[in-house]
């Protein structure tokens, strides 16, 4: 019996996979600049040409952005997230909010059914961080914690596909929060609505969780329309 020789993937594909994992794992944070070429070449043991081919592949997928003379920056944590960011560039805040309503509603319903005690503890910690950041005037940290709270609900839904889809919109939703913040009258999305949602999840009240999401996001829609 003859054995077919194993086919090793091209080196550039291997390097692309390694860079993708560095982004996905958070080793390279969103909107941060990745290490310079010489450092990456030494770390990965590859040539400049191979590294650039890998970076180009991730830039094409929307995960990285190459800025000539400045460096390369992380723009999304996955190709799906990068595609979502590009797709939403030409849409309004109202459109984004309407998409969130559908995703958040289902995430809340399933989280009320499936969230563990550990999930609830984690969500409560995100709310505490969110409040502290707002009180300190750290709007970047506030937006981070707000996103972590909502993404945590999607994760607590117990549906990995829903969580992956929700997380893919993270860059868009996060940027939308930062865009809203400077507008006159923005109040940091009051804690009451988030706390009410968390309480509904903790007592496994699916209807109350869904109603709270609808109320919170509809209030945002009314504010945006003013």
From TrEMBL:
<dbReference type="InterPro" id="IPR000524">
    <property type="entry name" value="Tscrpt_reg_HTH_GntR"/>
</dbReference>
<dbReference type="InterPro" id="IPR036388">
    <property type="entry name" value="WH-like_DNA-bd_sf"/>
</dbReference>
<dbReference type="Pfam" id="PF07729">
    <property type="entry name" value="FCD"/>
</dbReference>
<dbReference type="Pfam" id="PF00392">
    <property type="entry name" value="GntR"/>
</dbReference>
<dbReference type="GO" id="GO:0003700">
    <property type="term" value="F:DNA-binding transcription factor activity"/>
</dbReference>
<keyword id="KW-0238">DNA-binding</keyword>
<keyword id="KW-0805">Transcription regulation</keyword>
<dbReference type="InterPro" id="IPR008920">
    <property type="entry name" value="TF_FadR/GntR_C"/>
</dbReference>
<protein>
    <submittedName>
        <fullName>GntR family transcriptional regulator</fullName>
    </submittedName>
</protein>
<keyword id="KW-0804">Transcription</keyword>
<dbReference type="InterPro" id="IPR011711">
    <property type="entry name" value="GntR_C"/>
</dbReference>
<feature type="domain" description="HTH gntR-type">
    <location>
        <begin position="9"/>
        <end position="77"/>
    </location>
</feature>
<dbReference type="InterPro" id="IPR036390">
    <property type="entry name" value="WH_DNA-bd_sf"/>
</dbReference>
<dbReference type="GO" id="GO:0003677">
    <property type="term" value="F:DNA binding"/>
</dbReference>
